[in-house]
Amino acid sequence: MTLTLKEMERRIVRYGELQPCKTAFIDAHTPGSNQKENFTIIGGGVSESPDQHVHIKETPGFNIGAAGQPPRCRNSLHSHRTAEVFFVLKGRWRFFWGRYGTAGEVVLEEGDIFNIPTGIFRGFENIGTDYGMIMAILGGDDAGGGVIWAPQVIEDARDHGLVLGENGKLYDTKKGQTLPVGVRPMPVLNETELKAFPEPTAQDVVPHYVARYWDLMALAQKAPAKVIGSDAILKDKPGFDVELLTRGSIPESAYTTDRHEVLMPVHGHWRLSWDGSTTVLAPGDTCAVPPGLSHSLTPSMTGEASLYRITNTDDPAGATWTARAA
């Protein structure tokens, strides 16, 4: 396979070119959550807003997105049907989970990665002092068909003018919008349904689902650190594998894979070369390398250099917490 520089650039989403949506989810008007910015980088993600810009529509078996938030801004409690993995690009973040967000929590620093179990309510907030950014990997081409919100989130949103329809679309009553004929409001989960959502503690979750950046850097000095996968540090089959590469663990020569590969630098600038062409990837950039393309990676500057490499697998898009815990 061959690609021109122009064709490759269409497969790269630069950090500085990301287009945010501030009305992506039902809590967009709720105080404490109303300053969020949502980004859909590869695939449509789980946004509930028609205003969401999708940078690359073709999906490789998973979706890539991001959330940007100022200090003390939080993302409300919700659950996913498929895998949701975050790594911190900028800032310091607190992740919490459970019906009311009190079952457990963990704080992540830059480069740390969290493979959040499906089937539990989760939320997160920027607890740093500056605008923060977390990058997300969502399992499946359709990212599981949306999110499931904790009942209090839907009720709070309604008080601030946003109604989520059963069709998964948002309607802003402050703008005079109403549900279309035949579309009912998204039903709130009842107590029986809520009992199906586990309440694992931090001791249940953190050792099996969180990997610390500096531990991964130490492991990746001579070979890529296998972060998420069936034989990785975080053993799981979410529909994709995740590795961390450093200056010492990049392939020594050009390589080709029959899988889709997404490159996401964390630190340093990386030179990507193929077919006699070269481009540079910076932290926050996302590059979708197609199967069959011979390419090579080289850090372009001295100092710390690391990137996450995500490849699609034939596994389903994420196991439930119950299956994982068993």
UniProtKB/TrEMBL annotation:
Coiled coil: none
Keywords: Isomerase, Metal-binding
Name of a matching Pfam family: Cupin_2
GO molecular function, one term: metal ion binding
Domain Cupin type-2 residue range list: 74-134
Domain of life, per lineage: Bacteria
Gene3D superfamilies for the chain: Jelly Rolls
Protein known as: Mannose-6-phosphate isomerase, cupin superfamily
Organism in which the protein naturally occurs: Fulvimarina manganoxydans
Organism phylogeny: Bacteria, Pseudomonadati, Pseudomonadota, Alphaproteobacteria, Hyphomicrobiales
